[in-house]
């Protein structure tokens, strides 16, 4: 049987003291936990140290760059990357440990992520299963060059899928969600503009409508009740703002 690899958990954080503890607790099976903090003032660093994590200060340059830096600081080549608002469920932990016990047969693993929304987890629509690649051998992949927002890891070779969910407790409130989406829309518009993407008037109408229809109707978001409806509406507004901001940038009015 292959040797059981060491496994480093890598987390990026900024002012996450209210959510980090549960994240760290869910990673107790890892060989080490690395927390890269970008200037917390709420006790996040102190909590992480108290829970046995290795904390590194690093200025935020973008979500992808921050996660890439965290991976580079790990002691082991196999890494499990989480945000502070995410938690490994017992079923996912069992699947990871089973794969680890056999030496990790694939270069990377993806699994479903479920988002908590106003007290319940969304199980349909654009929110689920939202499969993410977060467990991989950094010698064969990682957070490679690409956009800094809505970043994703890639690996060389075929990715396997594990059972179990990664819990995502993303939004403290509707205001928090709207604030984040505004930040994301601004970053996405800037990235699209830098890459030469241009917005058309149709994008301001068709793209938001398609996001809503795809999530709430075609992917069954209506099965999540009013929560699914609200989530689909906010998502559509995010898409509209992204293209509005891109439109303004290309017309010299984006500042």
Question: What is the element layout, followed by pairings?
Answer:
Blueprint (H helix, E strand, L loop, with lengths): L6 E7 L3 H10 L5 E6 L6 H7 L3 E4 L5 H10 L5 E6 L2 E3 L1 H12 L6 E10 L2 E2 L10 E6 L3 E2 L11 E2 L4 E9 L5 H21 L6 H18 L6 H26 L5
Parallel strand pairs: 1-2, 1-4, 2-3, 6-11
Antiparallel strand pairs: 4-8, 5-11, 6-7, 6-8, 9-10
What would you say this structure looks like, in words?
This protein is of the alpha/beta class and 255 residues long. The chain folds into 2 domains: 7-168, Alpha-Beta Complex (Spore Coat Polysaccharide Biosynthesis Protein SpsA, Chain A); 174-250, no CATH class. The protein is built from 7 helices and 11 strands. The strands form 2 sheets. Strands 1, 2, 3, 4, 5, 6, 7, 8 and 11 form a 9-stranded mixed sheet that branches. The chain is globular and about 55 Å long.
Give a summary of the structure in a few sentences.
The chain has helices spanning about 15-25, 45-50, 65-70, 90-100, 175-195, 200-220, 225-250; strands spanning about 5-15, 30-35, 55, 80-85, 85-90, 110-115, 120, 130-135, 140, 155, 160-170. It has about 260 residues and is of the alpha/beta class.
Descriptive labels:
255 residues; Spore Coat Polysaccharide Biosynthesis Protein SpsA, Chain A; single chain
Number of helices: 7
Rounded to the nearest angstrom, the radius of gyration is 19 Å
The overall number of domains is 2
Assigned CATH architecture of the largest domain:
Alpha-Beta Complex
Overall mean pLDDT stands at 94
CATH evolutionary superfamily of the largest domain: Spore Coat Polysaccharide Biosynthesis Protein SpsA, Chain A
What coarse outline follows from CA principal-axis ratios?
globular
CATH secondary-structure class of the largest domain: Alpha Beta
What's the N-to-C terminus distance? 58 Å
Note the run of SSEs as H and E: EHEHEHEEHEEEEEEHHH
Number of strands: 11
Q: Give the helix level as a range of percent.
A: 40-55%
Largest β-sheet summary: 9 strands, mixed
Strand content: 15-25%
Tell me the quaternary state: single chain
Structural class: alpha/beta
